[in-house]
UniProtKB/TrEMBL annotation:
Residues 31-266 form the NADP-dependent oxidoreductase domain. This is Oxidoreductase YtbE. InterPro entries: AKR, AKR5G, Aldo/ket_reductase_CS, NAD(P)_OxRdtase_dom_sf, NADP_OxRdtase_dom. It comes from the Bacteria. Pfam families: Aldo_ket_red.
């Protein structure tokens, strides 16, 4: 099956989610953010991922409108994700937080809404709120982020709707194989945040050598590895040439040997917080 930048995976509820998207973590409100989102759309991206805590939903919304207009596309051509922050977990709180996010983005609905972190004692009530919003048609799919197996088991014990997506830190040094296998068994799509390990793998000699075989950069090799592993990926960039380069991964395929070599780089090493031990 040959994929391209607009190729989608069917989620467990039938919704279609692009395999590849733009992340905007740590990109501040302003012209640079808006230009990056618009540039991504212009260059074929159909998925944009933000979160309430990023403090940039308004700029993302502006960039979406600019990009759609320039590309002659409609809202339904895009897949937009946001996330509810820990301070807003709870039934009424989550309903209210969703409306705030939607207003900032200037959208009628979200394609995907995620619980950002598995805050103990808080996420079940938030999930009930998300199920309500989902049933009302305000969200096309609901999911979680940073959930480990035990968090998912706890959530599934009472959930009416199985999460469509689990967005987790995932890169060659943190392959999360056990969690991926569990999610696959439950029909939960894995999505990688920080797929490039915040740039820490870009000088890796092993990845450089693999890239040289295909005439591709380390970044492109890692992102291709995600796709071939059935992982949705959302690299961040604000520069148009990088946005284009990051997405130039649909014209080559990593060999079975190279895939195995990258899999073997796992060290269970996190650059982000530990979902079992965070205090925010």
């Amino acid at each position: 099956m040959s994929l391209n930048l607009q190729s989608t995976v069917q989620l467990n509820n039938g919704a279609q989610m692009p395999w590849f998207g733009l992340g905007v973590f740590q990109v501040e409100e302003g012209a640079e953010l808006e230009a990056a989102v618009a540039a991504a759309i212009k260059n074929g991206y159909r998925s944009i991922d933000t979160a309430a805590i990023y403090g940039n939903e308004q700029g993302v919304g502006n960039g979406i409108r600019q990009g759609l207009e320039a590309a002659g596309l409609k809202r339904e051509d895009l897949f937009v994700t946001s996330k509810v922050w820990n301070a807003d977990l709870g039934y009424e709180e989550t309903l209210a937080a969703f409306e705030v996010s939607l207003n900032k983005l200037g959208l009628e609905y979200l394609d995907l809404y995620l619980i950002h972190w598995p805050k103990e004692g808080k996420y079940k009530a938030a999930w009930k709120a998300m199920e309500t919003l989902y049933k009302q048609g305000k969200i096309k799919a609901i999911g979680v982020s940073n959930f480990q197996i035990h968090h998912l088991e706890d959530l599934l014990a009472d959930a009416e709707v199985v999460p469509a997506v689990n967005q987790i830190e995932l890169h060659p040094r943190l392959t999360q194989k056990e969690l991926r296998d569990y999610c696959k068994q439950k029909g939960i799509q894995i999505e990688a945040w920080s797929p490039l390990m915040q740039g820490q793998l870009l000088d890796n000699e092993e990845l450089k050598a693999i890239g040289a075989k295909y005439g591709k950069s380390v970044t492109q090799v890692i992102l291709r590895w995600d796709i071939q592993n059935g992982i949705v990926t959302i690299p961040k960039s604000t520069k148009e040439h990088r946005i284009i380069e990051n997405a130039s991964i649909f014209d080559f395929e990593l060999s079975t040997e190279d895939m195995a070599a990258i899999d073997a780089m796992n060290q269970n090493h996190r650059v982000g917080p530990d979902p079992d031990n965070f205090d925010f």
